[in-house]
Design goal:
The structure is a single chain. This protein has two domains: 114 residues, Tetracycline Repressor, domain 2; 166 residues, Orthogonal Bundle (Tetracycline Repressor, domain 2). Helices cover 68% and strands 0% of the residues. It has 18 helices and no strands.
């Protein structure tokens, strides 16, 4: 007689629970900061049991991104503004997962995911005002960049108002921006490396750029890069610090004057010219770098506080102003990174996001 093995029944929803936990942890700690053992423990299973659902962490990342994208595409297809806003509140981790951790996926997988999202946006917009629809997604995705939690009804009101203003801004025609390199060129070899790294980290992501590629970008061998920077992480730290210095010099003085409109114009202009830096900053947030974490966090907090002081309406809770400020920053950066949008479009969408 053949002995039959007992059928092992996995609890319903276990896979969805794993994906939810993984998305939350990747959002909070970054892909590299989370182990399969930690994820298994949080779900309440063993690591071997986790591997029965997913072959490894790379597949888990892919499925987590796909799960968020499935929900986003469904909300776009529904054509219900409230459904999209509710999704943004419920799955606020997806913005970070898409922009930062999703860049670690193989190029072929990323291309498939991007095509799906582009098709969903094109269908939702009817082929018109696509830039405005992308701005809406940027504004909603900004919820992943902060921890402000508003009462649900008020959160929905803010997001629906943001959508209305951005789509209205999309009714206008804006001239395309000039084509060519962005950001100032470096004066010396070290500056050249920082400029090249800024561009490459933005376009490909930190993990997808080698020291050999960085050296080739400035006409030197890969090992020669180490004469200027001991590690790639040190080069990333220099990229981010250079950007902060320019923000301090070009935007903070305008903010200090206390008027929102000139400050938005100054930041939009900066975002257009320095979109490689801002793109690298956004996608590499949370990346360990020597002495970088605390300095970056302190600067971001001070930058947002300065904006809130200028943007908050009389009697408006600071938390609501912070939500609008984060939306404005994200919309300006992403609109500039789009490349096809000129500085006038960046300024218009940023102003609409701030309200």
């Amino acid at each position: 007689m053949v002995e039959q093995r007992p059928v092992v029944r996995r609890p319903p929803g276990r896979r969805a629970r794993i994906l939810d936990v993984a998305a939350g942890r990747f959002h909070r700690d970054g892909y590299h900061g989370v182990s399969m053992a930690e994820l298994a423990a949080e779900v309440g299973i063993t690591a071997p049991a986790l591997y029965r659902h997913f072959r490894g962490k790379p597949e888990l990342l892919l499925r987590a991104v796909e799960s968020g994208l499935d929900a986003l595409c469904a909300a776009l297809a529904a054509g219900d503004p409230r459904a999209l806003a509710e999704l943004a509140l419920e799955r606020r981790e997806f913005g970070t997962l898409w922009q930062r951790d999703g860049r670690l996926l193989p190029a072929g997988q990323r291309a498939v995911l991007r095509r799906r999202l582009r098709a969903a946006v094109r269908a939702a917009s009817g082929g018109e005002r696509e830039a405005a629809w992308w701005a809406v997604l940027s504004g909603y995705g900004s919820l992943s960049h902060h921890g402000v939690v508003l009462p649900r009804r008020r959160g929905l009101e803010l997001l629906l108002g943001l959508r209305e203003r951005l789509l209205a801004a999309g009714e206008a025609e804006y001239p395309a921006g000039p084509v060519g390199a962005v950001g100032p060129a470096g004066a010396g070899r070290r500056d050249e490396l920082v400029a090249a790294a800024t561009r490459l980290f933005h376009l490909r992501g930190f993990d997808n750029v080698s020291m050999e590629q960085l050296g080739a970008a400035v006409g030197i061998a890969g090992p020669s890069v180490y004469k200027h920077f001991g590690t790639k992480a040190a080069l990333l730290a220099a990229v981010l610090e250079r950007g902060r210095e320019r923000l301090r010099a070009e935007v903070l003085p305008v903010l200090a004057a206390g008027e929102a409109a000139p400050a938005v114009a100054a930041f939009a202009d900066f975002a257009w010219r320095e979109r490689d830096y801002l793109g690298a900053m956004l996608s590499e947030t949370g990346r360990p770098a020597p002495g970088e974490g605390r300095a970056a966090a302190e600067f971001r907090r001070a930058f947002v506080r300065a904006w809130v002081a200028v943007a908050a309406a009389e009697g408006e809770p600071a938390a609501e102003a912070r939500v609008r400020v984060h939306a404005m920053i994200a919309v300006a950066i992403d609109t500039a990174r789009g490349g096809a949008n000129g500085p006038a479009a960046v300024a218009a969408y940023a102003a609409a996001a701030l309200g």
